[in-house]
């Protein structure tokens, strides 16, 4: 199959029919062998029943038992997709299916991932500010080059997901993870429309969860194959600081007769040395766990193999 469209939905009963029809109209014009996968993420309204009313062989419906979140819904769709290229988008019609041909055209330049950039967003001022702050923080921490990782409209080659499991709020960090694996990532400016039906699922709780997942992504990108370097370095710094404090207090006691038994610095010195030893031990244990993890999977990605005949 040429193309799979993956669309997660949660309480989008009024958008079901318009989203499917608009995508179908665009894709029929492309004359590609395609499928549209819509994942009902445990909706509590008529989203699922409205999906069942659509009778089309190109539609595949996946219903989750409860609301697991957008990342889980996308992961289910990606794993079910059969297309050589997978396009993801939101189910609220704020992304425009008219941009799909442009994403596919950009991929012909040799890219593995093409991300949408909602340069001119049609959202509230608060959402604008929070989104810009989150994007700035993301650039500072994980150093990716994408302007708008929160835009769900993206095109991927299917092999991007061969060894990628998603959880939490990690769908917005997929381009960064794939770039870290060596895939070629770029972006194009796409349209963005104001929401016409339903309510936004974007909350401050999701922002906080996304920040915590970003820290996990940062750790995984930088230390997933060598956690001892992170925990060991922190442990050595803490132990060294504790040792220097202890040495300072010892000099005070031996040469100047200063009483140190009731000084907080003594407790801090002991605490830092204990914590330093624990962090080094955590690093060793984490290193062992990483070796077990990579026993059945690779920590590298092969683009192609060329053999001389």
Describe this protein with a few key phrases.
309 residues; alpha/beta; Spore Coat Polysaccharide Biosynthesis Protein SpsA, Chain A; 2 domains; seven-stranded mixed beta sheet; 9 helices; 7 strands; elongated
* DSSP E strands, number: 7
Number of helices: 9
User: Which stretches are low in confidence, meaning pLDDT under 50 for 5 or more residues running?
Assistant: none
Mind describing the biggest β-sheet? 7 strands, mixed
Helix share of residues? 40-55%
Written account of the structure:
The chain is of the alpha/beta class. The protein has 2 domains: 3-223, Spore Coat Polysaccharide Biosynthesis Protein SpsA, Chain A (Alpha-Beta Complex); 227-293. The protein is 47% helix and 12% strand. The protein contains 9 helices and 7 strands, in the order βαβαβαβαβαβαβααα. The chain has helices at 16-30, 47-52, 70-80, 100-107, 125-142, 174-181, 204-223, 227-256, 264-293, and strands at residues 3-9, 34-40, 59-63, 85-88, 113-117, 154-157, 185-189. Strands 3-2-1-4-6-5-7 form a 7-stranded mixed sheet, with helices on both faces. The longest helix is centred in the C-terminal third of the chain and has 30 residues, at 227-256.
């Amino acid at each position: 199959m040429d193309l799979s469209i993956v669309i997660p939905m949660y309480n989008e009963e009024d958008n079901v029919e318009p989203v499917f029809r608009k995508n179908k109209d665009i894709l029929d014009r492309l004359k590609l062998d395609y499928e549209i996968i819509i994942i009902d993420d445990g909706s509590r309204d008529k989203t699922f029943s409205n999906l069942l009313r659509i009778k089309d062989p190109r539609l595949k419906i996946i219903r989750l038992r409860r609301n697991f979140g957008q990342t889980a819904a996308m992961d289910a769709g990606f794993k079910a997709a059969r297309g050589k290229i997978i396009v993801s988008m939101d189910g609220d019609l704020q992304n425009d299916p008219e941009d799909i041909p442009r994403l596919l055209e950009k991929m012909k330049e040799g890219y593995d991932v093409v991300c949408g950039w909602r340069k001119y967003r049609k959202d509230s001022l608060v959402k604008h500010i929070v989104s810009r702050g989150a994007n700035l923080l993301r650039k500072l921490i994980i150093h990716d080059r994408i302007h708008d990782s929160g835009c769900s409209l993206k095109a991927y080659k299917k092999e991007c997901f061969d060894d990628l499991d998603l959880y939490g709020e990690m769908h917005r960090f997929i381009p960064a993870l794939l770039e870290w694996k060596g895939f070629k990532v770029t972006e194009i400016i796409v349209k963005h429309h104001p929401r016409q039906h339903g309510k936004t699922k974007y909350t401050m709780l999701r922002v906080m969860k996304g920040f915590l997942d970003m820290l996990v992504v940062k750790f995984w990108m930088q230390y997933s194959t060598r956690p001892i370097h992170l925990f060991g370095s922190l442990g050595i710094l803490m132990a060294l600081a504790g040792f220097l404090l202890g040495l300072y207090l010892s000099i005070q006691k031996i040469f100047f007769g200063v009483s140190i038994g009731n000084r907080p610095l003594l407790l801090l010195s002991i605490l830092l040395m204990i914590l330093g030893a624990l962090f080094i031990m955590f690093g060793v244990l984490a290193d062992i766990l990483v070796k077990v993890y990579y026993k059945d999977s690779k920590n590298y990605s092969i683009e192609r193999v060329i053999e001389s005949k």
